[in-house]
Amino acid sequence: MFEMYVTNSRGQTLNINDHVNYSVIGVDKLDPPEAEVNIAKVVNLDGGRINSVRASTRALNIELLLRGDIEKNRIQLYKYFQYKKTVKVNYKNNSRNVFIEGCVEFFEAPRFENSCRANISIVCADPFFKDVNEIVVDASYILAMFEFPFAIENPIPFGEFQEDRQAIVYNNGDVDTGVIIELNAFGRVVNPKIFDKYTGEFIGLNITLENGDSVTISTQKGQKSVSLHRKGVTTNVINTLMRGHSWLQLKIGENAFVYEAEEGLEDLEMAFIHVDRYVGV
After folding, report:
1. C-alpha–C-alpha distance, residues 8 and 14, integer Å
2. 259 within 8 A of 184, measured Cβ to Cβ
3. What is the pTM of this model?
4. DSSP 3-state of 266
5. Nearest to residue 85, comparing CAs of 66, 57, 71, 106?
6. Is 83:107 a contact under the CB 8 Å cutoff?
7. Which of 84, 96, 124, 279 is an S-S bond match for 102, by CB 3.0 to 4.6 Å?
8. Measured between alpha carbons, how far is 243 from 205 in angstroms, rounded to an integer?
9. Averaged pLDDT for residues 147-167
10. How many whole angstroms separate alpha carbon 173 and alpha carbon 279?
11. Sign, Cα dihedral of 119, 124, 129, 133
12. How far apart are CA 85 and CA 88, in angstroms?
């Protein structure tokens, strides 16, 4: 059993499964996308050598049966599957609750058949389904120091910051994915740096943060950016990236990140935000 609804570029949503005028006949291309394999021929070598492999775009095809006032309901569908516009398709089954976005390629609904069907093709440049739930991992946490019963005779700590600023981030999807890293300064912080504990890769900034500053780093493919938010103004600071940096990616499974700063580490908090991505549903 599955549920499916679509949202157009204006935020209007149509629940196809729970609609008296439409029923889903079929949805194609829900399986993993095809791979584009680039093979080079080599002299005196049988076969060839694989140079690169990439996932193809996905052409999601939805076939609907129209009921009731066929003409009126067909035209109503135009509002949700708008020509050349972006549409978001949510799909939920017993295992996954995901969405994918794409552009309407064509909308076909033959007028002169006994049963009127609409055939809609949506081309998705990003072929992977995304989980509807965003995952946030806070790398700045406090170790509890409370014990009961207690008596306050001298000042005692209620908690202390973990010395090893580490975040364990799990990617439960089917493919590696980018991540959004949020840095928040509560004092003067100089040259923050984040390491992948397993690979040794890092991303760092040659920047001095002031109290109240925040930085957002996106390592998502096609959306890579570094932005400084200071006193209500957002500035592109991608030019502050340290030499030798990597756009850190979340590998499938467990990922461990640690961070440091030349000054003010105790005044720095950090969070990792991502959504799991899947090859199919």
Report:
1. 9
2. no
3. 0.84
4. helix
5. 106
6. yes
7. 124
8. 9
9. 55
10. 8
11. negative
12. 10
Tokens at residue 162, please?
């973990």
Distances (CA, A) of 216 to 54, 125, 208, 223: 28, 25, 14, 12
Instruction: Render 175-212 in DSSP notation, one character per residue.
Output: S-B--EEEEEESS-EES-EEEETTT--EEEB--EE-TT
Tell me the two tokens of residue 5.
Answer: 């609804």
Per-residue tokens: 115: 């049963």
Residue 63: CB partners within 8 Å, gap ≥ 6? Answer: 24, 25, 26, 27, 28, 117, 118, 119, 120
Domains of the chain: residue spans and CATH: 3-128 (2.40.30.200), 135-278 (2.60.120.860)
Show Cβ contacts of residue 35 under 8 Å, excluding neighbours closer than 6 positions.
Answer: 53, 54, 55, 56
Give the torsion sign (CA, 19, 22, 23, 24).
negative
Identify the DSSP state of 234: E
**Tens of pLDDT along 78-114?**
999 998 899 999 999 999 999 999 999 999 988 776 6
Strands (E), 17-96: 22-28, 35-40, 49-55, 58-66, 86-92
Residue 140 burial class via C-beta count within 10 angstroms: exposed 0-12, middle 13-18, buried 19 and up: middle
